[in-house]
Amino acid sequence: MRRVAVIGGHGKTGRAVCDALAARGIEARPLGRNDWQDLASAVAGCEAAYVIAPNLHPDEPSYVTSALAALTEAGAGRVVYHSVASPYVPAMPHHVGKAVSEDLVRRSGLDWTILQPGAYLQNFDLTGPLDLPYSPDVPFGFLDLADLGRAAAAVLTEDGHSGATYELATRVATGRELAAEAGVPVQQVGDPGTHPWLSAMFAYYDEHGLPVGTRVLEALLGRRGVIIGR
């Protein structure tokens, strides 16, 4: 059976990728912090790897450098890197960390693809009132986690994706539109101040949102007619 390593595979993103690989009959090997001491051995026997850094990692380029070195040592010739939509935005430091990491992936000598997902739909709890620390009226390209998994599985296992960078969104909408569809109220609240990088992100979102188109995902998944919110 073909094997694919999912580095950072125990979080919600990694689980979505592993599930989608399993649906294609591919053995997914989720790897986490316990595997980091000897990552090259952990990925041995895998033909490819999906690389996910922990959320708000303080030094994502260092994390990605270590992952790439392990993949090279293990002879896994293919890597797909989990980046973010609009990675080079100087106002958002954690996005810039992903932009630098993208450059490392491109110069790694491995066969690479980069995915740039929009904000996850699953980040919103729409079972009650929606409180947002930014404007509910700015546009977002939202991505369903299951679609992220399907797209990742496609580029990991199909030909024709080497050297490609794909922005991914399932639909375009505002927070207000999502709340209206769920039948719940929405309001803008103050920044909780839990992390300076999150505060910077909320300030950026308040002005610009995070627009991402949907056609790339449609093409990757071979479907049309994704619901567009606006």
Give the tags.
six-stranded parallel sheet, three-stranded mixed sheet
Q: Any chance you could write out the topology, listing elements then pairs?
A:
Layout: E1 3-7, H1 12-23, E2 27-31, H2 39-42, E3 48-51, H3 60-74, E4 78-82, H4 93-106, E5 111-117, E6 119-120, E7 130-132, E8 140-143, H5 145-157, E9 164-168, E10 171-173, H6 175-182, E11 186-188, H7 196-208, H8 215-221
Parallel strand pairs: 1-2, 1-3, 3-4, 4-5, 5-9, 6-8, 7-11
Antiparallel strand pairs: 8-10
Helix pairs in contact: 1-5, 3-4
The helix-strand sequence is EHEHEHEHEEEEHEEHEHH
Tally of strands: 11
Number of H- or I-type helical stretches: 8
- Report the mean per-residue pLDDT as an integer: 95
Fraction of residues in H or I helices: 25-40%
Give the helix/strand class. Answer: alpha/beta
Question: What is the rounded distance between the termini?
Answer: 43 Å
What report would you give on this structure?
The chain has 230 residues and is of the alpha/beta class. The protein has eight helices and eleven strands. The chain has a six-stranded parallel beta sheet, sandwiched between helices. It has a three-stranded mixed beta sheet with strand order 6-8-10. Helix 1 packs across helix 5 (145-157) and helix 3 (60-74) packs parallel to helix 4. It starts with a strand and ends in a 9-residue tail after the last helix. 41% of the residues are buried. The model is unreliable at 225-230 (pLDDT under 50).
